[in-house]
Amino acid sequence: MSFEYTEITDPLYVQSREQNREEDYIMVRRKECKDVPISIPNWKPSAHCFTTRFHQYEKDLLEAEVYSDDVWVASYPKSGTTWCQEMVWLICNNLNFNEARAESLRTRFPFLEVSLIHDTQISSFERVQKTKRPRFIKTHLPVSMLPKSYWSVKPKTVYIRRNPKSVAVSYYHHSRGIFYRGSMESFVRSFMRDHQFYSPYHAHVIEYHALTGCDNVLHLSYEEMKRDLPSVVSKVCQFFGKSYTEPELQRLYEHLSFASMKENKACNYEDHNAPSKDHGCFIRKGELDSWREELTPDLIDLLDRWTVKSAPTDAERKLFE
């Protein structure tokens, strides 16, 4: 097998997994990653949190075909992925707002490996394989788990990151709206112990930024998009070799505004089984520091100390500001 699987024996996880509906979590680590061009000395891939479904799809993941005209958006969950996808799709598709509103982002930009963590009617790998080219692909995979051919083909990829405190709060509400039944404090503590999907969080971000010779990867941040969207759009246009007039760009900024995205049903997926209106909306608040209103001082302190420990260098810590 190309991966090793480890059961989670952490007493906090074992004690609460049934109550929180996390019974099938497992840690998965890629054994060999010689194809990953990374600058971290003596780097060994981390084990990441998935579900037992991973066993069924490990070959589909590693052997997934990658094409040179693919466009990928990668991130740790709840890092501004949907917002970034919509921006990238529009810039690459000549600002086709009509199609963007008419067809769900899930269809335009399928999620490669969702079958690893949730039951799906058909394999998400099969669905992506059948998608019409040029394909737009969303992934939350860490660098160690990208398909083998990704590293030889090197498709254009945009990686977006977000402040860990914002991620923790947004990820809790997202999970609560789908399956999770624990408290926010329980979720955040689990997040810091690497027992949420795709964790460890810091390793995910740091490793994408430590790739070498990968001019096919553009790095963005959610905070940068919030503070200066035109500057980010300019970077993305340059990355994809696109150019638009000022009136066209103004229309794009309006389309990508929080108010517009929240009302856009093609992007703001709704879970009708969610326990509340707020939980049912995929796009919830869209604020930079709303975590201040929801996290206790103790949790804020714990998250900050966790980042200092997990990102020991100044350069790494700047990624999480």
UniProtKB/TrEMBL annotation:
Asked whether the UniProt record includes Transferase among its keywords, one would answer: yes
Enumerate the GO terms in the molecular function aspect. sulfotransferase activity
Superkingdom, according to UniProt?
A: Eukaryota
Q: Does Hydrolase appear among the keywords?
A: no
InterPro entries, A to Z: P-loop_NTPase, Sulfotransferase_dom
Residues of the Sulfotransferase domain: 69-307
Entry keywords, A to Z = Transferase
Signal peptide: which range, if any? none
Family, as annotated: Belongs to the sulfotransferase 1 family.
How is this protein named in the record? Sulfotransferase domain-containing protein
